[in-house]
């Protein structure tokens, strides 16, 4: 008659017990609030503060006046970007009471100011030499231009890389305005 090793029985029975315990844990986690831990944060798309001053010394604020915003990250050394900034200037004059417009360049303030003056930009323009603000907005400071569209409630609705044609910018602005404030 063979003797049964109690330790061997204990080892064999641990597997099913651990599996059942795991199923209970996952079920309890899901039922009792696990979805809150797994769901993305409601503020993931909140536009971060810009945190820099424009060329006139005013703090850039995407939530100014409770209006939606178009934030343009653009290099001063890019001819296509200059054309696009000219289109942004025209749009800013047309929509100034309905949309905030901002431009930030990953260049030194003196270069940014010279370009803004040469192009006759009247909307707020700032310098972001390290590209930190661009990075926080999900734009690549190494790329020529990125447009970021922010709702009136401060949510980033979309990002679009590259200089935009005037018609595309106009269409995007109309969509931004028609989106209106969304409940939080």
Task: Estimate percent helicity.
Answer: 40-55%
- Count of helical regions: 5
- The percent range for strand residues is 5-15%
Q: What is the architecture of the largest domain at the second tier of CATH?
A: 3-Layer(aba) Sandwich
Class inferred from helices and paired strands: alpha/beta
Query: What is the C-level CATH assignment of the largest domain?
Result: Alpha Beta
Q: Radius of gyration, Cα only, in angstroms?
A: 26 Å
Q: What does the largest sheet look like?
A: 5 strands, mixed
* Intertermini distance: 73 Å
The count of domains is 2
CATH superfamily of the largest domain: Glutaredoxin
CATH topology title of the largest domain: Glutaredoxin
| Strand/helix succession | HEHEHEHEEH
- Unreliable stretches (pLDDT < 50, length at least 5) are 27-42
Tell me briefly what this model is.
This protein is α/β, with parallel strands linked by helices. The protein has 2 domains: 7-39; 64-179, Glutaredoxin.
Structure report:
Helices cover 43% and strands 15% of the residues. The protein is an alpha/beta fold and 184 residues long. Strands 3-2-1-4-5 form a five-stranded mixed sheet. Strand 1 (69-74), helix 2 (79-95) and strand 2 form a beta-alpha-beta unit. The protein is elongated and about 85 Å long. Helix 2 packs across helix 5 (166-179). The protein folds into two domains: 7-39; 64-179, Glutaredoxin.
């Amino acid at each position: 008659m063979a003797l049964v090793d109690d330790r061997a029985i204990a080892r064999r029975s641990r597997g099913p017990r651990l599996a059942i315990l795991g199923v209970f844990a996952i079920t309890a986690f899901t039922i009792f609030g696990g979805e809150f831990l797994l769901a993305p944060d409601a503020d993931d798309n909140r536009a971060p503060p810009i945190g820099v001053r424009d060329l006139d010394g005013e703090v850039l604020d995407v939530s100014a006046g409770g209006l939606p915003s178009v934030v343009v990250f653009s290099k001063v050394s890019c001819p296509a970007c200059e054309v696009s900034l000219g289109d942004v200037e025209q749009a800013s004059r047309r929509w100034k009471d309905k949309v905030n417009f901002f431009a930030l360049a990953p260049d030194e303030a003196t270069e940014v100011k010279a370009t803004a003056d040469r192009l006759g930009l009247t909307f707020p323009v700032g310098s972001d030499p390290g590209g930190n603000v661009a990075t926080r907005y999900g734009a690549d400071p190494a790329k020529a231009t990125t447009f970021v569209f922010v709702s009136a409630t401060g949510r980033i609705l979309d990002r679009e890389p590259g200089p935009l044609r005037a018609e595309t910018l106009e269409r995007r602005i109309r969509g931004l305005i028609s989106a209106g404030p969304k409940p939080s």
